Amino acid sequence: MKNTLSYHLPRLLHQLGRRVRFGNHQFKMPGYYPCRFTTSSDQHEGFLEAILRRVLETRRGTFIDVGVNAGQTLAKVLSIDKDRAYVGFEPQISCCFNADQFIKANGLVNAQVLPLALGDSNRLLSFFSEGETDECASLIDRKSLASNRTQTFVQCRMGDEILSEMGITQISAIKIDVEGAEIQVMEGLKETLTSQRPTIIFEVLPNFSGIEERIWHDPDTCTSNHASAEKIRVLLHQIGYQIFQIDEASASESKIDAFDLDNIKDFKGSNFIAHPIPM
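Below the sequence we write its predicted structure tokens.
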């Protein structure tokens, strides 16, 4: 106990404002980091737990989580099947660190997170975010969001290649929530989707935002959203998938032939699920 206190007390002083000196310069110390890993499986997208339960109870294999953020989906997977193999991808270093520390603290030997973005190429890409755990962070520069978003660079990998390198040969489902870059992720996973045929849970952003008051996005954003949605529809049709709209109020699924991004009056949510058509 004495050794523990002697280690932490000086650091606590830095947390309260004492600066550290390196050479002739003083610097702030970030002190102790609060863990921002989610504290509940149902606080965010509660409908998703019912969807995941239906999938995981009928399909074996690794769950792939593209866009870990604060670990909301990992928490849901753990509530359903604690021993399920889980691989998450998250380019926000703070989010990745929090999830990794949670995994290690709880001895979750079947779970791991990698500090990478998935896409359709292997290269450094611009990444736009606001804060350390931004739910709207994306490879897409969405100008309709806050003007104080910062641009950094993240390493992007093609999903087909990295999953092959990891030796993952059986996948139950892939969740993709990357704020507008879903088509790039799917294109980088095309071989995996074709050969392993996992269930795909993904988001397609509508052309408006807001909960109580709907606000239309600018014309360029709407055009880009329509183009991405059509590419997703074509790709999934080509490789033999049926697309279903998820009703976020009831967690029910209804088959669709195309994405309707402009339906403000009867908006059921921005989440969809694609099931492989039996061969």
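Residues 1-32 form one domain.
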